[in-house]
Design brief:
Elements: H1 3-9, E1 23-27, E2 32-42, E3 45-62, E4 65-86, E5 89-101, E6 115-128, E7 131-144, H2 147-151, E8 157-168
Antiparallel strand pairs: 1-3, 2-3, 3-4, 4-5, 5-6, 6-7, 7-8
Length: 175
Amino acid sequence: VRREVLDTLVPGARGAPLEAEPVSATPGLAPLLVLAARTQVAPALGVEAAAGWTFAQLRAREGSTDRDVQDLGVVHAVLGLRYHLHPRIYLRGGLGGIRYLAEREGLFREGSEVKAVLEVAGGARWRVAGLRLAVEAMAQAHSFGTVAQRRARGLDGTVYRGAVQVGVAFGGDWP
């Protein structure tokens, strides 16, 4: 990819041709806000619908230098199953869609697309001081690529996202 194409995709990129010093762009660490609803369909099995929003910075790495490129939002929605291994311990998994939202510049100058996302998680829940708390580890995998990236002869890749989530539950029955 020519340097002028790279400068368009990742504003502020510098240096020799891309082959000499690749530039990668990734979201920085960021908070994740999720709202979920679930219903039990069997004693240990539930159906869950969840939607989440992450607000982050797109970060560029060129050589040993990291820098912020632009604000980035990530929205996702997942429909899945939750299976209780024990009244307090569960596993869940589901499929849905994910989309990256940013100002129409650089890598996102031609927008972004909704991509399929796979989500898996495991967690535990309990009552503390009258609150129903849950803590879980969650992982997602999805493809990523933008029209601008493909026009510049870039390739789609796979993104792996992970989070440790802490939540409070309302309604329903908990041990």
